[in-house]
Amino acid sequence: VKRKSLLRTGLAVAGAVAAYKASPGYARDSLKGIAYAAGLRNINLEGMGRVTAAALGRTDYPPCFAQMSEHVQHIASIPPPEFYLTNGRAMVEAHKLVSDWYGMDLVLPYTDNYNIEAEALGAKLVCGDVDMPTIDQSQPLIKNIGDIDRIDIDFSRDKGRIGYVADGVNAMKEICNEPKILCFSAPFSLAAGLHSYPGVIRDMRRDPKALHELFAWITDEVQPRFLAAIQKETGIRLGLAGDAWAAFPNVTFEMAEEWVVPYNARLRRNMRKKGIALVMLGGADYCEERQDRFKRELMEESWLMQARTIMGRRVKRGVPLMLMGPTHEWPLEWLKEYAQSNALPVYGKMPVLASISAKFIREGPREAIVEYVKRLVDVLGREGKLFLLFPQIPASTPPEHVHAVVQALKTFGRSPVPENLDEVKFEMPFFEPFDQWRKKHW
Amino acid sequence: MTMEILEAIKTNVVKGEPVLGLVEEALRSYRAEDILNQAVVPGVLEAGRLWEEGEYFLPDIIFVTDSFKEVFGVLREKKPKGDESIIGKYLIGVVQGDMHDLGKSLVIAILSAGGFEVIDLGFDVPIQTFVEKVREIKPDILGIGAYMSTTMLIIRDVIEALRSAGLRGGLKIMAGGAPITSQFAIDLGADGYGRDAMEALKNARQLMGVES
Question: Taking the model in full, what pTM does it have?
Fold first, then answer.
């Protein structure tokens, strides 16, 4: 036990050293998390500290974080053009404020980052009065693969929203005390942005050779130049490549094997040479919206495939996680069994990334949301290593729903978790209206 | 010429393979409506069953709708006018400020295969256009799509505008799109909902009083 504990701590310290290079604030919090997990319980955990402690299996309560740009824009009342198109710094600042207001542990200041490269290359961006911009899939920039020859790969600051993104990345460290991380589009999703999702799918049958040319061009030419341009502006050393277009059932498992896993690996290799580490997220995510179509074997296969999209073909097991879809209807016992039966040497039980779906958090009712968080803790959170992600908080979500989640995590997830959670009394927290809170805290 | 050609058409539609050549061959022996009703539509419905059972993924449905679209226009041209096999007239559009088109395209193909005459208003459709087109076309069902949490409330505004214009009575309304749920659709004032193209067809047929 002692040897395992030492090894675990050693791994965590190595992680903290790496974190220090990216952000001293992150590293300081991570060290607090390590100390807390090692037994120093009088430490006040926050942010990355809680995340680190949770990863080590001993935290005060499970951490949570959210992708919520539409909700942030709505709550902070920033005009959409400023928020989404011109003022990257204001966008990050608003994310920080709203995250703090809710008591979340990490700030995820990302909007439609998967559109940035395509827009800069000339793809048509459509912007409504209130919503997040999107690439016009009906008029793709690349109608035929041969069109790539006429595209000028130029990611200078004045192209599209390159300046906006660079300003946002720089603000992450300054405002959020987080490492500078670029969130961008993974190869498959960028191919969908440039050639349209149906265009990519159709060419897999119609002309796979030409489609491979497009993917190679994206992976070897476009994205290395894009990342280098942002690196020049910001000094980033880490990128998060979102890949929602490559989620299930948008692709089949065979398609993921052929078009997602190898090109992700190729891009990672390309960028490692330039000193940028990449993590791919969202590809192979099991997003089944319908409970009657939900299959345990697909869910588990998707976790393995996700791990492969992140780390390559040699990976033998995945990590249980929930992202999009009606995850509150998932059988939580299946995740628990997977986490336990796939325990890692030294580390033990797999961590679980749980989520609250966008529809559920918006519609509630609040009591059902609280009950769901209680069940999450009861089934998945008793041995620690539980994290809660809001994959998306819709604009119109009542804030009390989100506050209720954080309060429920604090109430039911407080370590040590009581045997019978039904005996734990839950009280909704008092919270100030956002504008009032902002005046006091900002 | 035997029934084999119809079976081959159905099989190709289910697999989402090219089907025009087979249909042209079949037209030498069969009426267009027979090819449609005995081969093409059963193929689409079989693909729908495979989707319902979780066997098919979205790319499979894209290929199936491509096969369907490849021949639907040809067969419709050759069908006699005033064909009674049309279940109803379905007007569809995505609300103002919302540019998402893919989901609607799939719904249109599946509804067409399932017996509806579908009129597409496109995306980013102003509220007033919905009202004017309902007045002009007099559809049995209006399908309103919204794919963003910021635009979905516009569905309610469209329904309100139709009510104010005296066009709500007798008109069935369905809502759909990623952020919409069954309950939310009802709360907005719609009569029906579809989580995906297949469910939209099933529910549209039910609204028309047709067994699905």
Answer: 0.85
